[in-house]
Recover the amino acids of this structure.
């Protein structure tokens, strides 16, 4: 059994863990900003709780294993830390729920392939080109079901590119998953919380305690700690392109959860969009394998 095949199942399992948590978090994030909490409150809850949980990792291990250096560390925090979450929280105020779950991970999957092409010289095979096209069509379908393009849509596209960039830096620095998770959480808390405490609007004091506890547990523990660690592990095991392509299935997973948990019936447009995204991701992931098979079967490869 090759190293790649040994890593495939655990990598997919870690990716699935992150996808299911993030799919649920989008619903709670939208609920949070619609029931009194500001985007600044939600960002503070995320990284305040996550930093408290992960600070022992920094104190015990620091970043001594494969240290990324100060500049890569700050880049990681900027790409997937407080700035990323703040932009995402602000975007959900104007972007419809279906678009929120599609644009961010969908753009990320497409950006990851392009970044890998530029930085790692990975081939842009016909299968991957088709995967990009199908993923883009599916994402567009989810967006169009919610109306026209808003400022929130554009912010979501930007966060998708940021997410893909984060995965590429993680892969390049070879920073272990737990260290990367702790670095982003603690670094974001150190840089963001003082600014939040002094200068940003707050509604935490006016929010019922059960709502605060729910958001703190889900956003601070599950999303920022468990899901980010799971995503980092999937990037270690599967590679940056595969790890950043799989979360584009979030709109499909969210659609399924709405059917199973909420009993909602998806529209025909949503079902078609989900099928397009699924087919696109399959081609993005299978692109190198399909190219190898075609080379073996071509006359030149015999």
């Amino acid at each position: 059994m090759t190293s790649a095949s040994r890593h495939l199942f655990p990598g997919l399992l870690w990716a699935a863990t992150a996808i299911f948590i993030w799919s649920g978090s989008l619903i709670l994030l939208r609920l949070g900003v619609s029931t009194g909490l500001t985007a600044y409150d939600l960002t503070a809850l995320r990284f305040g709780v996550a930093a408290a949980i992960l600070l022992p990792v920094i104190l015990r291990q620091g970043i001594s294993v494969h240290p990324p250096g100060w500049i890569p560390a700050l880049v990681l925090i900027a790409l997937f830390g407080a700035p990323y979450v703040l932009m995402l929280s602000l975007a959900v105020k104007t972007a419809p729920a279906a678009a929120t779950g599609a644009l961010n991970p969908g753009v990320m999957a497409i950006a990851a392939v392009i970044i890998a092409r530029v930085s790692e010289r990975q081939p842009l095979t016909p299968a991957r080109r088709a995967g990009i096209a199908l993923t883009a069509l599916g994402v567009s379908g989810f967006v169009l079901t919610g109306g026209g393009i808003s400022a929130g849509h554009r912010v979501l596209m930007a966060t998708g590119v940021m997410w893909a960039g984060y995965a590429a830096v993680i892969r390049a620095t070879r920073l272990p998953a737990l260290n990367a998770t702790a670095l982003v959480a603690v670094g974001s808390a150190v840089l963001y919380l003082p600014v939040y405490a002094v200068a940003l609007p707050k509604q935490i004091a006016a929010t019922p305690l059960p709502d605060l506890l729910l958001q703190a547990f889900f956003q601070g523990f599950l999303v920022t700690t468990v899901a980010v660690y799971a995503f980092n592990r999937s990037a270690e095991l599967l590679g940056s392109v595969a790890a950043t392509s799989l979360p584009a299935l979030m709109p499909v997973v969210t659609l399924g959860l709405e059917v199973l948990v909420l009993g909602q019936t998806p529209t025909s447009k949503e079902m078609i969009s989900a099928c397009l995204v699924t087919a696109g991701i399959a081609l993005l992931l299978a692109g190198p394998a399909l190219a190898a098979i075609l080379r073996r079967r071509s006359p030149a490869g015999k």
Observations:
- DSSP finds twelve helices and no strands in the chain.
- The CA atoms of residues 25 and 113 lie 25 Å apart.
- The two ends are 24 Å apart (CA to CA).
